Amino acid sequence: MPVAIITGASKGLGRALAVALARRGWDLVLDARSGAVLREAADQAGKYGTRVEALSGDVTDAAHRAELVTAAHGLGGLDLLVNNASALGAEPLVRLDALPVEGLRRALEVNVVAALGLVQEALPLLRETAGGAVVSVSSDASAEAYETWGGYGASKAALDQLSAVLAVEEPGLRVWAVDPGDMRTDLYRAAAPLDDDSDRPLPETVVPAFLRLLDERPDSGRYAAPSLLLEAR
């Protein structure tokens, strides 16, 4: 069975992707900071008969990242790494003139530094796999200037650039940065609690875009989930 590591997998897009991959027969290593919620996600994915390792911890912790990769090795290797864990930098989001420097530092640590650290830890396994892939969950805020989204967007822009360079340096892998588009998630509610998100799509509706990448394996690059879904119709 193919094996995937998914960070930030306790809820939202990470959880929806985990369930979808389990339904396809993937074995999983799931990460999140909240152990209780992560176990619920693991139980949901485990209903499909695949092996699921749920390891709670903080992706900024090097020992925890090593633990995730060791767990994947124990399942037989690593075919897919999904860098989905994210930090906003401030909750709710604020303008740059009010953004705490420590908040920005946290966003960069989670969204960029930890993602690179996990890639570095996982590369030996990914290189051994025919068709190894890295997916980094991006945002339209990495390419567009939205008021109050500056710190988060800057961190995602940095993640996009790391993904682009990784694709050049590791031509044997597929490296995709994916903007999932608008979603109804706890992360968005924390970012903008006064917004009405009732008309935003659920994460489950976005997952087919990620599955399309795995099925069709286009060139490494940055992709927008809404475009992938539209083209698939």
Per-chain topology:
Blueprint: E1 3-6, H1 12-23, E2 27-32, H2 35-46, E3 52-56, H3 62-74, E4 80-83, H4 101-128, E5 133-137, H5 150-169, E6 174-179, H6 186-191, H7 207-216, E7 221-224, H8 225-232
Parallel strand pairs: 1-2, 1-4, 2-3, 4-5, 5-6, 6-7
- Figure out the total of helices: 8
Distance between the termini: 29 Å
Strand order of the largest sheet: 3-2-1-4-5-6-7
The main sheet comes to:
7 strands, parallel
Work out the number of β strands: 7
Q: Tell me, rounded to a whole number, the average pLDDT.
A: 97
Q: Stretches where pLDDT falls below 50 for ≥5 residues?
A: none
* Structural class by sheet pairing and helices: alpha/beta
Please indicate the percent range of residues in DSSP E strands (runs of 2 or more).
5-15%
The rough form would be described as globular
How would you describe this protein?
The protein is globular, with a radius of gyration of 16 Å. It contains 8 helices and 7 strands; from the N terminus they run E-H-E-H-E-H-E-H-E-H-E-H-H-E-H. With 233 residues, it is an alpha/beta fold. Helix 3 packs parallel to helix 4. Helix 5 links the parallel strand 5 and strand 6. It has a 7-stranded parallel beta sheet, with helices on both faces.
Distinctive features:
8 helices, alpha/beta, 7-stranded parallel β-sheet, about 230 residues, 7 strands, globular
